[in-house]
Amino acid sequence: MKSIKTALLGATLIVGAGASAASADELNVICSADNALCEKLAAKFEEKSGADVSMIRLSSGEAYAKIRAEARNPQTDVWWGGTGDPHLQAANDQLSVAYKSPMLEELLPWAVAQAETSGYRTVGVYSGALGWGYNKEILAEKGIEGPKCWSDLLNPALKGEISIADPNSSGTAYTALATLVQLMGEEEAFEYLLAMGKNVSQYTKSGSAPVKAAARGEAGLGIVFMHDAVKQAEAGFPIEVVAPCEGTGYEIGSMSLIEGAPNPDTAKVFYDWVLTPEAQNLMAETGSYQIPSNKGSTQPEAAPKLENVRLIDYDFAEYGSSDRRRNLLARWDMEVGAAAN
Fold first, then answer.
1. 3-state DSSP assignment of residue 76
2. What is the mean pLDDT of residues 230-249?
3. What backbone phi and psi angles, to 5 degrees, belong to 276?
4. In the predicted model, what is the mean pLDDT of residues 161-174?
């Protein structure tokens, strides 16, 4: 059996004064972030611990559904990344386990607040603001001025040019839904979504897919977290990154230990490690432009500066609650989703 040896606590892996070694040879992780980052985290932890990491990439909504479906016989140890709302719903449903990491004192206030809101059943690992990226060449060719505000997305000239994910599968799209409800009120937000739906070409499964489509020229604009749009711009695509003028929501990308996990000790070692600057700096190395949660982590130079974005006071407790989230998704299906079919 492979083991996480003393080296994990010394030269190989230092996770804080309260860390301890665990012996196990497997770790099952669901990752809801960019696939390149998921693979990097898995490979680095395998290298440092000797554990065999099995990692699958699922969007936030898919991850929550899988964990809920497996509640009587959990197959997952750790759920890393993805928007905080479904992590909070999992905490509310007691699908995750309470754990106070020794790394908490090194985290930024918003990451600790996420842990406190959930009764320490989840924790913040990164943050990023919601916005969009549009293809400058496509819009210029059609004579469409680049949209700066949510209201601009109702421009009839954008018919067929907007791509956004389905909030049932995508945490990004659920954040957009919850953001608009908080900005406008529920009735006006659904009126807006129905009106904007006339301009939507497709509702994707993945939250980052819309701006990738815009980068490839398959759509004019993708509603995504701004760091996903930055990634496409940094890769050389003609993408302009926008923070909506009226204000916007943001995510606290989170991490949860699963209740009844098959490898709980190794899961805690992984959990503590990915809260260190060493692990969080892998985000920048893999071209992920979120804001990491450890105070000592390096913020990528190209990452959107949240102080320059008009952020709403996003209510994570309310919109991460099981009832609120379930009701909003049901209404979206009946009104917006039904209109798209």
1. coil
2. 97
3. -85, 155
4. 96
* Alpha carbons 198 and 340: distance in angstroms, whole number: 8
Residue 1, Cβ neighbours under 10 Å: how many? Answer: 7
Return the pLDDT at 20. 36
Query: Average of pLDDT values for 110-136?
Result: 97
Phi, psi (degrees; rounded to nearest 5) at 17: -60, -30
* Range with the poorest average pLDDT among 12-26, 32-46, 201-215: 12-26
> Phi and psi dihedrals of 73, rounded to 5?
-150, 70
Spell out the residues 6+ positions from residue 185 whose beta carbon is closer than 8 angstroms to its own: none
Over residues 6-19, mean pLDDT = 34
d(CA 106, CA 282): 17
- Ramachandran region of residue 261, left (φ > 0), alpha (ψ -120 to 50) or beta? beta
Q: Given the structure tokens 């969009």, which residue do they identify?
A: 132
Structural contact between residues 168 and 61, judged by C-beta atoms closer than 8 angstroms: yes
pLDDT in tens, 73-92: 999 999 999 999 999 999 99
The label of the residue with tokens 């004579």 reads: 143
CA distances from 27 to 41, 75, 295, 306 (A): 12, 10, 27, 34
CA 327 to chain centre: 21
Q: Which two tokens stand for residue 240?
A: 């302009």
Torsion region of 284: left, alpha or beta (phi above 0 gives left; psi -120 to 50 gives alpha):
alpha
